[in-house]
Amino acid sequence: MKNHDIYTSSVSSVSLRCVIVANTFYWFLSLIGLYIDFLVVAKRSPFFSRSKIRPRQYISGKDRRELILLCAFNMLLVAPLVSVPLYETLWDRIHGSKRLTDEDEWVWQIEALQKLPIHFLATEVGFYTIHFAMHSWPSLYQHVHKIHHRFQAPTAMTCVYAHPLEFLVGNLLPIYLGPIITNAHPLTSYFWFAAAIIGTCKGHSGYRIFGCADYHDEHHFYYKYIYGGIYVLDFLIGTMKVSS
Ligand SMILES: [Zn+2]
Ligand SMILES: [Zn+2]
């Protein structure tokens, strides 16, 4: 694909549709999360009150407004207007005319069994490495990653509450990496973006889902350890320190 229009080409609009899928799941889950928070604060849901991981920590009205503003900036402006042209160009440069399109057959043995595991691995390596670097380099933490750590007891919406540069490089790039590396079919890419946003909303939910708290909640509470998304590298490297 050469000299195409990133926003209208049938191939190149794949990234834009990935971002639309991510936005749809993100806002749906985030608003559910805020509604559950409201029920807990109003003492109208004993079930969710029991499931809240940090029972006495809530996001104030002022903090909620700032949370929505930055998350909307990232998801509605940075994702479609910066990440789409940037990573779409990279995707095209690497695969050129071999890029899979909607017209290509979706071969489940290849897409689901071979490519998706690579997506998990690529995202984990990318996310862990960048996240670990932001905690290891004081000025990077102070000026960039500290914003994401504003909420010690997160809610689903806070998963993209981050400096726009961190959102672009530390959050979106690791998600794009898998489909770019494997030349994923568009359907696989849409599924992957949906799965990634569901996973990170779950990690920041602030509630025990199906009885289990997410390890990422511990990372927000202690500001260290547990740097990965699916924790494979944390187990292997030895950064999987969890409170009892
Ligand atoms: Zn962190
Ligand atoms: Zn987080």
TrEMBL record:
Q: Just give the chief location class.
A: membrane
| GO cellular component annotations of the record | membrane
Q: Which InterPro entries match?
A: Fatty_acid_hydroxylase, Sterol_Desaturase_Related
Keywords, in A-Z order? Membrane, Transmembrane, Transmembrane helix
Top-level taxon? Eukaryota
Alphabetical GO biological process terms:
lipid biosynthetic process
Question: Which residues belong to any copy of the Fatty acid hydroxylase domain?
Answer: 118-239
Compartment(s) where it occurs, according to its Swiss-Prot or TrEMBL record: Membrane
Q: Which GO terms describe its molecular function?
A: iron ion binding; oxidoreductase activity
A Pfam family (short name) is FA_hydroxylase
Q: What residue intervals traverse the membrane?
A: 25-46, 67-87
- UniProt protein name: Sterol desaturase family protein
Biological source species: Skeletonema marinoi
